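Re: weekly structure request thread

Next one in the queue (111 aa):
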Amino acid sequence: MSTTTEPHDHGIESASGTATEPMKVRAPAELNADAAAQLAASALAGPPGAAILIDLTAVDSLSLESAAVLMTLTRRCHAESRPLAITTSAPVHRKLTLLGLDNVLPLQPPA
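Done, posted below.
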């Protein structure tokens, strides 16, 4: 598994997935629309059909636009029959729940 982080990538870290290992993508502390788009692109860069794990545990600020990007990613993964899980921090889980997105996004509760 390889991990890549570049200075222009909004602090997004990704580890390539395989048929048996999920594509893991970690978000930075602030997830705005641009960072969320980079996050989604990194997640979808893995092998076709590979599971995706989005790690939002370090996120303490989440914009509504980034929530929309997560919705689009969820729809795309569903259309491609690609497993997707999103782990969250407590503040992010609370915000997405208040928005009613906990019933739509594949959220894993905070640890």
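Residues 3 and 15 are 4 Å apart (CA to CA). Confidence is low (pLDDT under 50) at residues 1-8.
Next request, please.
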